């Protein structure tokens, strides 16, 4: 963290890096380069999205706040049936919460799992207090 990659030399297998805290620059070599640039949740244009009881989940701090608030909640709606949304649903299911999982896609984990595995997971998640609302657009 707190470093910026300024140049990648694929053929020479090295990167040029700047330490953002002190300005020092250096080269680092690699055998394999894996880029994990991260992402940020898509925030749908929903009226009231900025209300106090609507939370984003992308990092450790977000998850801690969500877990803390979930202790006093009976029913939880998770928007997004990607990896993080499905993980949250499973955790809340274990906690005994009533759940609604909403996604614009017709299937869960649409970009991660093949259709057969999606159906198996959907059937597993559908046991208990879970209402799936797939193919829903705002």
Give a short overview.
Helices cover 25% and strands 25% of the residues. With 138 residues, it is of the alpha/beta class.
Task: Report on the architecture of this protein.
The protein is α/β, with parallel strands linked by helices and 138 residues long. It starts with a strand and ends with a strand. The chain has helices at 60-70, 83-94, 115-125, and strands at residues 3-9, 14-19, 25-29, 75-79, 98-103, 130-134.
List the helices and strands and how they pair.
Elements (H helix, E strand, L loop, with lengths): L2 E7 L4 E6 L5 E5 L30 H11 L4 E5 L3 H12 L3 E6 L11 H11 L4 E5 L4
Parallel strand pairs: 4-5, 5-6
Antiparallel strand pairs: 1-2, 2-3
Based on CA inertia axes, which overall geometry fits? Answer: elongated
Question: Would you tell me the overall average pLDDT?
Answer: 83
Question: How far is the first residue's CA from the last residue's CA?
Answer: 36 Å
- The assigned structural class equals alpha/beta
Number of helices in the DSSP assignment: 3
Share in helix = 10-25%
Number of strands: 6
Identify the strand order in the major beta sheet.
1-2-3
* Radius of gyration based on Cα positions: 20 Å
What pattern of helices and strands is seen along the backbone? EEEHEHEHE
The low-pLDDT segments are: none
- Beta-strand content: 15-25%
Main beta sheet, described? 3 strands, antiparallel
Main traits of this protein?
3 helices; alpha/beta
């Amino acid at each position: 963290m707190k470093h910026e990659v300024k140049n990648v030399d694929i053929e020479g297998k090295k990167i040029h890096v700047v330490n953002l805290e002190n300005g020092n620059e250096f080269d680092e070599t690699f055998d394999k380069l894996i880029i994990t640039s991260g992402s940020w949740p898509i925030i749908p244009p929903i009226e009231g999205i900025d209300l106090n009881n609507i939370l984003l989940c992308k990092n450790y701090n977000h998850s801690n706040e969500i877990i803390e608030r979930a202790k006093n909640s009976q029913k939880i709606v998770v928007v997004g049936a990607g990896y993080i949304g499905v993980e949250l649903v499973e955790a809340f299911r274990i906690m005994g919460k009533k759940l609604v999982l909403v996604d614009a896609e017709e299937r869960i984990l649409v970009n991660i799992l093949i259709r057969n595995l999606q159906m198996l997971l959907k059937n597993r998640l559908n046991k208990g207090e879970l209402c799936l609302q797939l193919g829903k657009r705002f």
